[in-house]
Amino acid sequence: MEIFGIPLPAMLSQLLLGLVNGSFYAILSLGLAVIFGLLNVVNFSHGAMFMLGAMATWMGFAYFGIGYWPMLILSPFVVGVFGIVLERTLLRWIYKIDQLYGLLLTFGLTLVIEGVFRSIYGSSGQPYDVPELLAGATNLGFMYLPNYRAWVVLASLVVCFGTWYVIEKTKLGAYLRAGTENPRLVGAFGINVPLMVMLTYGFGVALAAFAGVLAAPVIQISPLMGQPMIITVFAVVVIGGMGSIMGSILTGLMLGVIEGLTRVFYPEASATVVFLIMVLVLLVRPAGLFGKER
Amino acid sequence: MRKKGLYGVLLLALLAAPWLGVYPLFMMKVLCYALFAAAFNLLIGYTGLLSFGHAAFLGMAGYTTGYVLQTVGLSPELGVAAGVLASLALGLVIGVLAIRRQGIYFAMITLALAQLLYFVFLQAPFTQGEDGLQGIPRGKLFGLLDLSHDLALYYVIVVVMVLAFLFIVRVVNSPFGQILVALKENEPRAISLGYNTDRFKLLVFVLSAGLAGLAGSLKALVLGFETLGDAYWTTSGLVILMTLVGGMGTLLGPLVGAILVITLEDRLGDIGQFLTSVTGIAWFSSLGESVTIVIGLIFILCVLAFRRGIVGEITARLKPARA
């Protein structure tokens, strides 16, 4: 069976690949949105945190023999703690000044983190095997479904919607949302806002590291792997707007799929299609698809 | 009066630099980056717009000039003019899109659009991909003055730089420049006073793009090559750093920042060797390979403790003494 002259299995496999990338976009832009909401900082170092997650996974195995499954928890935890240290030592000094400085500070952080790893490991990629449990593929009749990719999409969806649920439907989430609207008033009600801010940053970068672990077996692990990612995610954020959690998730997934389809029909544009869509959105709906301009 | 004296001394220093043992080639590179940073400063320092995609204009102009000089074979002044025109046009396109959003989104949009252009340069045939344009001829200015001699080119560059600098001073001190400051300080107020702020933003963005393009064209002419690195986002980061270190919103800040950052990039290895010989710590000798780390650290330091930059800090210290 063919669609527009493309064999169906080839198309479906690219679609799945797009969905995998879209999962990463969704997790990363979600983290950016959560951090921006409470800290008013656009975290440029999100790509570096994604890289750290993948690097930590690889290092866990290479140096300590710790496998994929423990690292799936351990790696985001370590990176989250690292993020908390950064928030306490550096970020907290800039909340009261222009947002632009937050971007610049985290940009500097990115250069340092990536520079340190590059001076140790060079810029070539490290290999990482798919965990045994998820090796191979399942025959669905109309296509072979690589188990690991299916797992990435599933795990990402669970984490994304879990985050959405916590923020939109629980008491803790209500505090967070209130903190986004008016931190002083929330503090007056006896809630420890600085603690909340600190944990939010830790959680946000832990999300990025989680995406990094998921990505470790499917993309080259290298100190610079976060660079193209963060710029694409910025475009995703411009398209979706940072005001809505669900908006971030859906925009991320959607753009991943569009990118996958572009790779089938016009491979030359697959690296640029997200940016072109951003241009289109800016022309038609400047505030973004889910945007509430602040 | 004191200010005029300072500028006079600066001009003399520029004219005398090649005779005082500074390599003209190095000095020209510094001047090109100084103009690039001054163009960027027009946005961030005087209008409050953070462009994270200024590398696009440097690269666009550099490639255009390189292509025109090498393949079409026009004279250098036409090559530079073509480069400036190309980046003006690009500035118009990027500007129209980017000013549709405010603040932090503006930075992200310019970054993303510059990255889009980077991919175009990566794939387009005329940039020759990873190799870049090599051996761009300098030719003869107006068919008369042979620029292949470094000194001749140096003085041409100095003249162009002084003119560009005067142009920026004129823009900043004009009524137009005052409206830009009003935009930076309080945009809603400027709107309520009846100014069409989008039009002013677009105009200053295009101006800045054109000046950045002039820097890119001259740089391609001076160095004789143009590579993808110029259009990459790290270059956009570098120009932000130059302006931040030198002092945003000051006239001399970009120049000071460019001198410091370019010297640092060029000489970090030597500085490391020196530190090793003084302190005996072997790690310093590998400093030359860690330019990114050092640049990142300076970024962090500047944002946390030193937001006025060198020139801004000096002016702030001098002011109370005079009053």
What's the quick description here?
With 294 residues, chain A is mainly α.
Helical percent range of chain A? over 70%
Strand content of chain B: under 5%
Outline type of chain A: globular
Query: Biggest interface pair, residues each?
Result: A-B, 41 and 40 residues
Poorly predicted spans of chain A: none
Strand residue percentage of chain A: under 5%
Which structural class do the helices and strands of chain B define? mainly alpha
> What is the helix fraction of residues of chain B, given as a range?
over 70%
In total, the number of strands of chain A is 4
What is the averaged pLDDT score of chain B?
87
Note the main sheet of chain A.
Answer: 2 strands, antiparallel
What is the molecular shape of chain B?
globular
User: Which strand order spans the largest sheet of chain A, edge to edge or round the barrel?
Assistant: 1-2
The topology string of helices and strands of chain A comes to EEHHHHEEHHHHHHH
Ranges of chain B where pLDDT stays below 50 over 5 or more residues in a row are none
